[in-house]
Give the backbone structure.
Amino acid sequence: MVAWRERAGEVWTLPNLISLSRLPLVVGIVFLLDSPLKYVLFALVVASDGVDGWVARRLDQTTELGALLDPVLDKFTALVLVAALFPRTDLAPEFLVFFFARDLFVVALVPLVPLYGFDTSKAQARLFGKVVTNVQFFALVAMLAEHAGAVEALCWLLAVASALAIADYALFVARDLTGAAWLDSRRGVAAVYATAAVGMALLAVGLLGEQLADLVAMATDGV
């Protein structure tokens, strides 16, 4: 009982309140999609995401709850905004597979936690994972501005970045769990990355073959 009371008390720290302020801000964006105020609210969401961690360290108020809240609120924000903004771009919904491909793969790693005690947060902190997160952010900005062309281009970029991130995650997890020597060889690494690239390419052809053909034709005409 005491532990639960202590954990509940962590909610009322300033950093966690700043994090939780994203909830009403995101709701405000959804209700103000046709108003320029949506840009102000989005800027405040971005600011709160950066400020909460800084305040926590500055005030020595880092908590386990705060460490959990931040990524959960990040995903909640992305899901709500994509659900509200993407339909206004009139793009094929299949593009969302590329937007969330990395996240779906990380979710697929969750069963490893009870089986092997694997820490999935170690995978999310990888370089390519951070690249995917940044491209997702710019895609959200493009959705907010209702620039369909930019959203489509960024989703294709996410397909490439996600393939690299998934290959990197797969290597990291396999090395951590098995310690197999071939995973450290050039051929082993190349095989994993090639498999991820082929898998993403087949997914792209299967879901968006026509759009991919148009993209290739445009690139060829440009050359």
In short: DSSP finds eleven helices and no strands in the chain. The two ends are 68 Å apart (CA to CA).
